[in-house]
Amino acid sequence: MTLPVWNRVAQMRPDLDRMRAAGDRIVLVPTMGDLHEGHLSLVRAGLPFGRVVVSIFVNPTQFAPGEDFDNYPRRLADDVARLEALGVAGVFAPEPDEMYREGETTRVEVRGLTEPLCGAHREGHFLG
To answer: How far apart are CA 39 and CA 37, in angstroms?
Structure first.
């Protein structure tokens, strides 16, 4: 079976609904792709808990002006092959227009938690 790669929520939802109806838990491992051993270790850690779904989304809101969003490594085919070998349930790989619909205005900010991380020197980094 070929690993499903969903680009739209509407594509993903029926598959996740079937998994839940079968009694499976869904385990999300969010990434920006260009997977390395750290990402894969998170996938392996999640497998005992349910069906692992990996998101691969190069989030433009996490790049400050002057940072190189356009040159961020995008190796979806390689990432999917590595994930398929681990037995994940699927990959959600949306484009920005799927995640940030026209007119959207919602952001979540967790004050205090992000400051010691990249938030200390990258204002707004975690708002995306």
So the answer is: 5
Provide the 10 A C-beta neighbour count for residue 94.
19
Give the whole-angstrom CA distance, residue 77 versus residue 37: 17
Q: What is the pLDDT of residues 95-116, one digit of tens each?
A: 999 998 888 888 777 777 777 7
Q: What is the pTM of this model?
A: 0.87
Radius of gyration from C-alpha coordinates of the chain: 16
Q: What SS3 state is found at 36? A: coil
- The answer to whether 89 touches 1, Cβ cutoff 8 Å, is no
DSSP state letters, 66-102: TS-GGGS---HHHHHHHHHHHT-SEEE---HHHHS-T
How much is the pLDDT for 54? 98
Enumerate the active-site residues: 39
CA dist., res. 127 & res. 102, Å (int): 17
How far, in Å, CA of 128 to CA of 104, rounded? 12
Q: What are phi and psi of 31, to 5 degrees?
A: -145, 170
